[in-house]
Design a protein that fits this description.
Blueprint: H1 2-28, H2 31-35, H3 41-65, H4 70-81, H5 88-94, H6 99-124, H7 132-156, H8 158-186, H9 188-193, H10 199-217, H11 223-234, H12 238-245, H13 250-278, H14 282-290
Amino acid sequence: MIDDVLLGITKVGMLAFVVAGMFAMGLKLTVASILGPLKNARLVIMLLIANFVVVPGIMVLVTKVLPMDDATATALILVACCAGAPFLPTLAKLSKSDPAFAVGGMVLLMVVTVVYAPIVVPLLVTGAEVSPGDIASSLVVLMLIPLAIGLFIRARYEGSAATLAKPVNQISTVGLALGIVAGIIVNWSEIIGSVGSWIFIGTLILLAVGYGAGYLAGFGMSASDRRVTSFATAQRNISAALVIAVSLDGDVIVRTLVAALVVPIVLIWLAAELGKRSGGTSETTVEAVEA
């Protein structure tokens, strides 16, 4: 009974985080500010290579070199193949980076994941069933529609958008906190049971590979933009990975869930540390982008 309640809190909390977070971003930004950074062809190409060639390629190699069980190796490959997480704008905010670039990069990587995962994952993971529709539905309903509504309100009713942005953003923050805490509690036995399975070390390797690849992808850009490219590549789309994992055995789902908890915790800490050292503020960045 308690587990059912905690599971419900986890789902509602993460749902509130994603939907409210996308809505809040739309209230603060404009379409032009989001699309602006993506006009840089070199940046787009490097970001795609980092996310869909370098990270999956290196993680496939890592799973073959390290003595992992099949479930752990499969979970890491699934996570490595899915990019464009709704968590990216939050990491940009914490690290005092460009939120408009974060939203634009997130949408780009999500859309490519919808096409990429159904083609590549079955080649790397035997028995994996990937439905583009299942992945795309969460992208459209939970992320793009709230973002579009926020952008519309921002464009037509700027005063109302400014008033709404703060409380909506607070809902997103509370949802994230509740979702992570409840998720850890309800999955505690699975987390403990995964100790010794290489999933923790493998996830940390994935994060390091993603952050490094993203940092190199942003070569020649400002420090703020390089933080975005780094987090855009380190933060994987766990939701998409879980959609695929359910077509496999239970151990793969458990390992993917463990990775889903480790990734945001580590990146939240890292983003907060970088934000303390950067000296700027995310709100200032928003105003600069909109100007």
